[in-house]
Amino acid sequence: MTSMQLPGYDAWKLQEPPAAIVVTECGRCGVDLCEGDEVYEYDGDYFCSSECLLDYMERCGYVRSMQLELSDVVSTDWED
Ligand SMILES: [Zn+2]
């Protein structure tokens, strides 16, 4: 299958991967966030995962986890 190899592939795979550039850290757990990482941004802070973002927002009171009750959903002040 040598004919299938792309030119330069051997040279490419022998190279050291470039050192990850730490850009910032997770606003919740503090893990390093590197260039190219897929992160969540909220209000100028960056988070490594949706779990960290959600935990952060929960601590700040922006969201809450709760047991859903029908009365929470049924609103008495419908418009239209
Ligand atoms: Zn995190």
What features would you describe in this structure?
It contains 3 helices and 4 strands, in the order αββββαα. The chain has 80 residues and is α+β, with helices and mostly antiparallel strands. It has a domain at 20-65. The chain has a two-stranded antiparallel ribbon. A hairpin with a 6-residue loop joins strand 1 and strand 2. The model has no long low-confidence stretch (mean pLDDT 86). Bound molecules: zinc ion. Zinc ion binds at residues 26, 28-29, 31, 47-49, 52.
How many individual β-strands? 4
Assembly state? single chain
Shape: elongated
Report the helical percentage.
25-40%
Write the layout of secondary structure elements.
Layout: H1 9-14, E1 22-25, E2 32-34, E3 40-42, E4 45-47, H2 50-60, H3 70-73
Antiparallel strand pairs: 1-2, 3-4
The structure holds zinc ion.
Zinc ion binds at residues 26, 28-29, 31, 47-49, 52.
